[in-house]
Design goal:
Number of strands: 0
Strand content: under 5%
Order of helices and strands: HHHHHHHHHHH
Number of helices: 11
Largest sheet: none
Helix content: 55-70%
Shape: elongated
Structural class: mainly alpha
Length: 280
């Protein structure tokens, strides 16, 4: 969501790896531009990820329901491992600030490869091919970049999850589609999602509260379909715990853009079996 520069109030040292010294770094002076770019990126990424078939034939086949009559589109010419990079580049041509987009692309690659703690601003600058001064026009530190990536990935994921849960389909099908949205997210940006979730689950993380709100929102979205599938009222805490378990399966199986069709299908089987078993 759009925000003003004054909303960046995370205290120094509250996130591991931050070493902020008041007055030694220029504060971002393009907050409006970055907020507008982030909002546009969310819209473009949501539209892009809806077309799961463009990520690869393997993901497309893994995500469709058995028996669905859908003809795959021609290959898009890029790998799933580069899909996040592609969608940001595409969005730059539609109005996303180019420097902002390059920083996000570089940071996503660095975080996904090295994790949050081992990623440095120098590494992000090198991966993004932007000047240090340009970086500080948008962000105060690497934690701010992670915040925007978290907002981008989780809001897009939540929107697609909601579409699956509210679709015109039997409740069991809605649950399966929601599972496939989870799998699709990891196949689209799995390494980055792993870092985002790990950081959000760290005690004291600035992302912790936002992650809990996201879980609450996903729970409320899927609850009607879940209760219709099991035929009774269900405590929201129970559903929330199952969502956490679904994420845990994806993390435990190390799902990522490099996952094979067989690995994605195995994850889907495990998630659906777990939901079906606990639903009884």
């Amino acid at each position: 969501m759009p925000r003003a520069a004054s909303t960046r109030t995370t205290p120094a040292g509250s996130r591991r790896g931050r070493r902020r010294k008041p007055g030694t770094r220029p504060q971002p002076d393009r907050a409006g531009t970055s907020a507008e770019s982030l909002a546009l990126l969310k819209r473009q990424t949501t539209a892009f990820v809806r077309q799961f078939r463009t990520l690869s034939p393997e993901v497309f086949r893994a995500l469709i329901l058995p028996g669905e009559e859908i003809t795959p589109r021609p290959a898009s010419g890029f790998s799933r491992d580069r899909s996040f990079d592609y969608v940001v580049r595409m969005s730059e041509s539609m109005g996303v600030n180019q420097s902002y987009g390059r920083i996000l692309r570089g940071a996503a690659a660095e975080f996904g490869e090295k994790g949050y703690d081992a990623t440095s601003i120098d590494g992000i600058l090198e991966a993004s091919d932007v000047a240090r001064r340009t970086f500080y026009q948008f962000f105060s530190d690497k934690g701010d970049v992670l915040d925007d990536l978290f907002d981008l990935v989780m809001e897009v994921w939540g929107e697609l999850f909601a579409e699956a849960a509210r679709s015109e389909a039997p409740p069991q099908v809605k649950l399966k589609r929601a599972v496939r949205v989870c799998i699709g997210g990891f196949s689209f940006a799995g390494r980055l999602i792993r870092v985002l979730l790990t950081e959000a689950l760290r005690p004291g993380s600035p992302l912790e509260g936002r992650y809990r709100k996201i879980l609450d929102g996903l729970t409320a979205t899927i609850q009607p379909a879940y209760e219709a599938a099991v035929g009774r009222e269900v405590d929201p805490k129970y559903i929330r715990a199952q969502l956490v378990a679904v994420f845990a399966i994806a993390l435990d199986l190390n799902l990522s853009p490099a996952s094979t069709r067989a690995e994605l299908e195995e994850a889907q089987r495990l998630m659906i079996r777990m939901i079906a078993a606990l639903g009884r």
